[in-house]
Design a protein that fits this description.
Blueprint (H helix, E strand, L loop, with lengths): L13 H22 L10 H19 L3 H11 L22 H8 L1 H13 L5 H12 L19 H15 L13 H12 L6 H16 L5
Helix pairs in contact: 2-3, 2-7, 2-9, 3-6, 5-6, 6-7, 8-9
This protein binds fe (ii) ion (2 copies).
């Protein structure tokens, strides 16, 4: 699966579409409740991150000219990308000390855990949307050079996955955390860092430049968040 999702419209098959939308809405509510167990000063709030990423995905799809249907399908398929986090103890995310390799592995398992939730809850359904959502859930931390969570490389990553990997990383770097020090986390600052310090080893740069152009257009017209 590599193409942009333009061959199905969940609104045209409401029996399946409603089940899928209800599943995602319910999981997002669960992610929110889960997040409430974390310290109140946590800056990286999982469900808020997911909302912003899904919105940015939708805007990028429209900016590239992929059309409303792709933008809508990508929005919904991206929203639940981190739901697997709720299967892990809430205490593992906000440690001040450097995470051990074991802790990193545990955090990373949220991709597989998310896919397990999908299987468990929607296993009676077969639909290309579910394949898309699962692809994004499993692979959104992969990198073009194979240095991501599971070591898949560029050719094995679908376009939807490549785009979510970009927008998801951008959102993480926009939220200040202690180890960032005085790093520039403004919109242009993060985009420059992604282009110059990360680049094609990590991201699909053609998609990155489309995303960056969408963000900078909004920034230059006054949207600073
Ligand atoms: Fe993630
Ligand atoms: Fe994420």
């Amino acid at each position: 699966m590599n193409a942009w999702p333009d061959e199905f419209d969940l609104r045209e098959t409401p029996d399946i579409g409603e089940k899928i939308h209800a599943f995602i809405t319910d999981e997002m509510a669960k992610l929110k409740t889960y997040g409430e167990q974390r310290p109140s000063d946590s800056k990286y709030i999982f469900h808020e991150h997911a909302d912003r990423v899904a919105q940015n995905i939708k805007k990028t799809c429209l900016h590239i000219g992929l059309g409303d249907l792709v933008a809508e399908n990508m929005y919904w398929a991206t929203l639940p990308h981190d739901i697997g986090k709720r299967k892990l103890p809430a205490t593992i995310w906000d440690r001040v000390e450097q995470p051990t390799d074991e802790l990193k592995q545990r955090r990373r398992s949220h991709t597989d855990l998310g896919a397990e939730i999908v299987k468990e809850k929607l296993n009676d359904l077969a639909h290309p949307f579910i394949d898309l959502m699962t692809d994004i859930m499993l692979n959104h931390h992969e990198q073009m050079d194979g240095g991501g969570y599971q070591g898949l490389s560029g050719a094995q990553l679908s376009k939807p996955v490549r785009l979510v990997a970009i927008v998801e990383a951008y959102d993480g770097w926009r939220i200040w955390r202690p180890h960032y020090g005085d790093r520039d986390i403004s919109i242009p600052g993060v985009l420059t860092r992604m282009r110059e310090e990360k680049g094609p080893d990590i991201f699909d740069m053609e998609l990155f430049e489309s995303f960056a152009e969408m963000k900078m257009n909004a920034y230059n017209s006054g949207l600073k968040e």
